[in-house]
Amino acid sequence: MDIKVLKFGGSSLADAAQYKKVAEIIRADPARRYVVASAPGKRFPEDTKITDMLYRCFELAAQKQNIDEAFGEVEARYDAIIRDLGLDFSLEEEYRKIRMAIEHHAGEDYVASRGEYLGAMILAKYLDFPFIDAESGIFFRKDGTFDDRATYKALGALLSGKAYAVVPGFYGSMPNGTIKTFSRGGSDITGAIVARAAEAALYENWTDVSGMLMADPRLIENPRVISEITYRELRELAYMGATVMHEEAIFPVREACIPINIRNTNAPADPGTMILSRTDRMPMDTIITGVAGRKGFSSITIEKDRMNTEVGFGRKVLGVLEDFHISFEHAPTGIDTMSVVVHTEALRDCKEALIGRIFHDANADSVTIDDNIALIAIVGRGMVRAKGTAGRVLTAIAEQDVNIRMIDQGSGENNIIVGVSEDDYDTALRAIYHAFVREA
To answer: In a 10 Å sphere around its CB, with 0-12 CB exposed, 13-18 middle and 19+ buried, how is residue 104 labelled?
Structure first.
């Protein structure tokens, strides 16, 4: 039987009613063998996530303040889930250990990880599955980087001995035994790691939306769901702001060619989005797969007469950026001009010094920096075979009287990046989406 690994986000495990939905989903398919659980999320918009409640306990203890009330709220949240699930189960001993650790100034990573730890214990009890603590199978190196080789060996051995299991997301352990967490949203990464270690046929990532959307729903009313997307397209869109899935969660499963299915816990019949290593299927009628963007960029423009004849000019400019520890996003060029797009934040304390160095090292005629730029990525495997895609993008933006600050088409021909003023970002993104997606 093929193995499926499932990860459930915080909204999927916010209360006992959600736990019951999760259990029904898992029990509906015997191939759903290994489950990764996040900490309980918000039950309603004004609610507080368990992880944030634990961070609050950590902050109070660091300030040498009493944590009784704050930690009591954490206990009450879990006890309500246990009670409403009808479980004959107590976490009192775990509460005691965690409270003591916080009061004795345990590390922030340890405190934050206890949300997943306790939630996964409840889910394991409710499902009658074995519980595997992530610290016993997910490892980090001394420098804090993920130790893939040690993890896949140890976790694979732990999973192979159990037909079913629940694993808490978000954390693992350092060589000295202390807890280390992934970045926020890291349960996605844990799910991918478990899928890789289990040699799964499919990684199901269950959340509160029915798949990945073609555009930000805050800007586009009812954007279409993407039925299929490649890992490469997903990375392009995730980097530019699409947030359904943690960007770093792609790599463990991508290396093993394990597909990901993004599903909705509250609408389990919806097929969601399939993320694949590759697909020959083209989008039905849109050409593009999705559009996403981010604000907060600056363009460094260097002008020099006969730049195109000077061997090593680009290296000199990029060498200055390297000396200032600044990475660049894009570098569109002309015969006598070179522009380098970087994050504005990276220039905050070094703008004048950077300009001076570029003048000196590249012997430039002029160097200017323009801030308040937003980048919009238009991504799609269908773009490779479609004529006039860039023209449609430019026309759509121009018809909204928006000026394009830059345009860059990737050599793989599956993405086009346009830069516009941050004030024009919303208008430009809407125009691009509606140029390719015609509503019925």
So the answer is: exposed
